[in-house]
Amino acid sequence: MIRVFALALATSAAAALAIACGGDEATDDPRASKIGAISENATYAYAEAGADGLYDYLAASVTGKCTAEEVQQDLDGQPVPTGWRQVKDIEFGSATATATVIVITADGDVEQEWSFAEEGDSWRITSIPGLEDCAG
Question: Model confidence over 15-51: pLDDT tens digits?
């Protein structure tokens, strides 16, 4: 857990740069850096610890429907990320967002549509490919 946290801190500047360089109109919105950070941190947590790592970044609406074991089962067959490249095309609703998240896999970069919800002063993931049964 400490290793993941240290990695998250070390890559926060990289996330801000990747978001800023993504040409996304939403980058003027201060929420964009939060979406970038949560997608990056969740990607590395999933790469490091599997579904247990990702589970910490899921919205309450998702964790209320699925256990970590069910999340792992739902993600079987999906490409497992080895790293995070960028977030782009962020679109905000009132307390929701969608974005294209580019993750690095053993087979190359994969673009995925992720959804997010604002919970308090942070953002959580409500949907990624494979979690349709748990999506909140």
Answer: 443 444 444 445 678 899 999 999 999 999 999 998 8
Between CA 26 and CA 28 the distance in angstroms is: 5
One DSSP character per residue, the chain reads -HHHHHHHHHHHHHHHHHHHTTT-GGGGSTHHHHHHHHHHHHHHHHHHHTHHHHHTTB-HHHHTT--HHHHHHHHTTSPPEEEEEEEEEEEE-SSEEEEEEEEEETTEEEEEEEEEEEETTEEEEEE-TT-TTT--
What pTM value is reported for the model? 0.80
